[in-house]
Amino acid sequence: MDLTNPVPLPGDLQLIPDQATIVTVLRQRAALHPEKRAFTFLANGEDESGSLTYDEVDAGARNIAARLIALGMKGKTVLMFYPPGLDFILAFFGCLYAGTIPAAAYPPRKNRSLQRIRTIAADCNAHSILTTDAIARSLERNFAEDAQLAGLPWHTTDSWSLAGRDAVAGAEPGFESLAFLQYTSGSTGDPKGVMVSHRNIMYNLRSLQLIFAITPEDTAVHWVPQFHDLGLIFGIMETVFSGSRAVLIPPFIFIANPALLLQAITRYHATVSGQPDFAFNHCVDKIAEPLRAGLDLSSLRVMYSGAEPVRRSTMERFLSAFSPAGLKAEALIPAYGMAESTLILVGGAITEPACYLRVKTSALEQNIVVPAEDDDQSGDTQWIAGNGKTKMDTSILIVNPDTCEILPPYKVGEIWASGSTVTMGYYGNPEQTAEVFRASPAGTANPVWLRTGDLGFVYNGELFITGRLKDLVIIHGRNFYPQDIEEVVEESHPSIRKSCSAVFSVEHNGKERLAVVAELRRSILPHDTAKILEAIVGSLSQEFEIQPVRITLVKTGSVIKTSSGKIMRRANRESLLHGNFTVIADRIYEEHGIAAGNYKEGEAPDLEQFILGWAATRLNEGVAVDPACSLTVYGLDSIMAVELTAETKNIFGFEWPPYLFFEEISIAQLVREGLKLMEDR
C-alpha cells in the first residue's frame, strides 16, 4: 500500500491513506451495493440457514456498536464466545465500529476447565463477555461459580434489537489504533494476545487481494473457525474488503462430512476456498468415489493451503483425487503467515502450479541448500514446497538465529519479516514484544523485524519453509505449546518422572502428528508399562482432544536437556527418529478408518454393539475395548468425536452433546446416555 496514493480497490471505492479502515470499507460497500449478499451461512453444510447483505451487516453492526458505546465499552476489551454463524460477524464489526477491542475465543465446553479462558481474561483485562443467548444460558452458571470470572457481565447481542440503523457516536477508528486481539495458543497455558491494528488489517487484506486476485465477482466457500486468524481475516474481513461473497460452513460440519465443502463449491460455482494441510488429506480419506463423481471444481481459481506446513505429497494426493472433478493444478496455492503478521506474509502465484524444489537431504541437515540433479537416484533427496513471494511492503530476511547475522543465499536460517502487516506486539507483554517484534540484524540498529521462529530459505525469490525453530506443535490446524502437553503427560501417571518428558511433532503418513518421549522411574519394568501408556493417551485425549501417533517410554536419564535443565525438544526428536534411546516401551497409534453408512435402514445394530465396534476399529487396532473404560482412554480426539457424532446421527437419528465424549464417562455409561437421547427424540 503506497501511503502517498489512495488505496486502489475494485469497483467504485476510493480510500484515503492513513484514515480508511475496514469500517470505512463496510460503510461504503453498504452505501453502494446495499442489496448485494455478503455472507451466506449453511448451518448443516447444505441448506441456507441465514444470510446478510452488505446493508444488513452495516446496519446490524452499527446497532450493536451503539449499544456497546451506551454500556461504556468504548476502548474496553471484551471476550467473544460465539458459535459458527452470522451473529459473530455482526458483533465483531459492531466492536470495530464502537472502538471496543474484541478477543474472540472458542466457547468453552460445558463442565470443562476454564483455565485457558481465565488466563485470557486476566491477560487482556476483559471488561465483559459478548455472546448469544443460548451460549450464555449454557455457560453463565459455570462462570458464576468461578472466583476470577464471576464478575464479568454477559451481553447477548442476538437478543438486542437490530431494527433500523442507529447512529454510532464517536469518530472513525484511527488508522494506527488497536482493532482486536488475536490469541495464539490452542492449548491451556501461556496464551499471548497479538495486537492487530487497523493499519495491519488494511495492509494484510490488500496483500491477500493481490496474491489471490480477489474481485467483487468472486464467491468463496470457507469452513475454518471464525475465531482463528485464517477464518476471521480471510473468511470474513477479506470478503468485505474485496466486496465479494462468502459461503460459510461450520467447522464441525466439515470435519464430520468434508464432502459438503466440495459440494458447496460445486453448487455455488465458488472461485476461492482453502484450508490447512490436514484438511486436504481429510477430504481424500473421507470422500468416497461415488460422491466425487458428482463434483465440479472447475470454477476454483484459488484453493490455498495455509495454517500448517505445506506438503507436496498432500497437494499431489488431493490433485490426483479431484482433478477428474475439474480441479486445476494452478488452483492449489501455498501460503505462509501467522497471527503475528496479521495473517499472510507470502503466497504463491495464481497463474502457475505450486513451486517444489528437490534438494539434497544430507546438505539440508547442515543448513545448506543444494538443489538435486534431475537424474539423482541416490535416495539422498527430498522435496520442499515453496510458499510464494512477498507483496506490498513486506520484506523477508534469512538470519542465523544464534548470531542474528544475515545469511547468504542457499543457507537455512530463521525467517525474519518486516512491513506494515507485522502487528503491534503482544498485549501487556513488553518484554516478549521486544524479543519477538523488535529484532535487529547483527551490526545494525534496525529493530523492526519480527522473529517468526520458523526456519527456511529463499530461492529465486520464493520462500521455502524447512522446519520450526520454536517448539510450537500444530495438529489439525490447532497450535499447542509443548510444555502444556508435557505437564499433562507427567501428571497422567506416578511412574513418569517430572520435568523429564519431551513432546514434538513428527511427520507420519504425510501428516503432522504428535510424538511423546517420557522418562520412567528406575523401578518400572517393561511388563508394567501398559497402564502408563493408557494413562498418557487418556489424559491427552481428555485435556487436549488429540491422539499421539507415538509414545516412547525411556529409561531414567535418557531425555536430552541443556546444562541448565531445559528440555531440548529438537535433539530428543532426532534421537527418537534415529533410534538412539534406550526404550522401555514404544507404541505406534495408527489411524484406522471405518466405512460410514454400512447399515441400511432397519438393519442398524444396537447402540452398544455399534459403539464397541467403532471404538475397537478406530481406536484400538481392532482389539476389543473395555466397556468400563472411557473412549478417551483409547485416544479419542476431537475429529474422531465429530465423526462418531455424525455416524450415530446417520444410523440412530440422535446427536451426542459435544462435550460428553471428553467427560470421565465409561463407554457403558455413554451407551446409556445415548439410549436416553434415542427415547427423547
**Count of individual beta strands:** 29
In helices, the fraction of residues equals 25-40%
Counting DSSP H or I runs of 4 or more residues, the number of helices is 20
Uncertain runs: 1-8, 594-602
CATH-assigned homologous superfamily of the domain at 473-588: ANL, C-terminal domain
Please state how the strands of the largest beta sheet are arranged side by side.
Answer: 13-14-15-16-19
Under the CATH scheme, which class of the domain at 473-588?
Answer: Alpha Beta
What is the general shape?
globular
Give the distance, in angstroms, between the N- and C-terminal Cα atoms. 56 Å
In words, what does this structure look like?
The protein has 20 helices and 29 strands. The chain is an alpha/beta fold. Among the domains are: 356-468, Roll (Luciferase, domain 3); 473-588, GMP Synthetase, Chain A, domain 3 (2-Layer Sandwich); 607-679, Non-ribosomal Peptide Synthetase Peptidyl Carrier Protein, Chain A (Orthogonal Bundle), CATH 1.10.1200.10. It has a 5-stranded mixed β-sheet. The chain has a 4-stranded mixed β-sheet with strand order 4-3-12-11, with helices on both faces. Strand 15 (332-337) and strand 16 (344-347) form a beta hairpin. The longest helix has 17 residues, at 54-70. The protein is globular, with a radius of gyration of 25 Å. 48% of the residues are buried. Residues 1-8 and 594-602 have low confidence and may be disordered.
